[in-house]
Design goal:
The chain contains 2 helices and no strands. The model has no long low-confidence stretch (mean pLDDT 89).
Length: 59
C-alpha cells in the first residue's frame, strides 16, 4: 500500500491529482486567520485611544 504525499507548494490542483497527493482545503483556516487579525487590529486601536486619552488627561 502506497502512501500519498502532501502537495506542499503546489498551486495547480490538476498537478496535485496527477501526482496522487492529498489536497487540503485551507479556506476556513484563512477566514479564521483574517477574523483574528481584524480583532487584533481593533484591540490595538482601542488601546491606542485609551493611551491617547490618558496622555490628554495628564497634560
Amino acid at each position: 500500500m502506497g502512501y500519498k504525499t502532501l502537495a506542499i507548494g503546489v498551486s495547480d490542483f490538476a498537478e496535485t491529482i496527477e501526482t496522487g497527493s492529498y489536497y487540503v482545503d485551507k479556506t476556513l483556516m484563512i477566514r479564521e486567520l483574517r477574523e483574528r487579525m481584524r480583532r487584533a487590529c481593533e484591540t490595538v486601536r482601542y488601546v491606542r485611544r485609551i493611551y491617547e486619552n490618558i496622555e490628554e488627561v495628564l497634560r
